[in-house]
Amino acid sequence: MSTDAQRAASHGKVRAPERFWVAVGAQLRRPSGSGGAVIGALMSLLNAAPYRRAIAALELNAEDCVLELGFGTGQGLAALAAAAPQGRIAGIDHSPDMVARASRRNRAVITHGRMSLVRGDFVSLPWPGACFDKVLMVNVVYFFDRSGVAASETFRVLRPGGRVAIYATDRDSMQRLPFAGAETHRLFDAGELTRLLRQAGFEDRNIVTERVPLAFGINGLLATASKASRACGNDEVG
Fold it and tell me: Most exposed: 61, 133, 159, 192, by fewest CB within 10 Å?
């Protein structure tokens, strides 16, 4: 069991089935080992449609500098690199296993100097302010801190006029999933996702949240937000 799962299971006595789902939730938060490999493969399959919708919502230009938070197996990174063929792609993920896997998947783009991946925490992004044109998050916002620091960090690194796209499964659908407990997941409805972006610094007039119906009766949310345009800096992706 991962450290996250052990920590989650330590909150009182937990029955075996509940411990299993807590462990699954912890793997979704930070995949590791053989269990993480299975989770990664499953999420690659389930995230295909959300990735298509979220990347389309970014309205990428060929030369955009793009950041993905929580890139997992790297399928989104590959799509971003293809959609911005003269741009630069960066990514950060909690899991060293996913950093290794995504690096292998995107080896050619990394070798050509167009992509850089790091392991780290969303509450302290290792880039200067206003250095990305677009930011992507797919099924990641559940793992943001409740104090709002990670959301504010996302706003900080986005250039004025830049755009963020966030996909998350709606609270009502997530509550039916046994692994999405409070120990590992922070759940959102449309209003809560909008408030997260507002608290990060985005203006209400620049936030759009829509429902995304998926298979098996799952309802998703796609939120896009643009940072108010001001004089742009010249920072580059590190």
Answer: 61
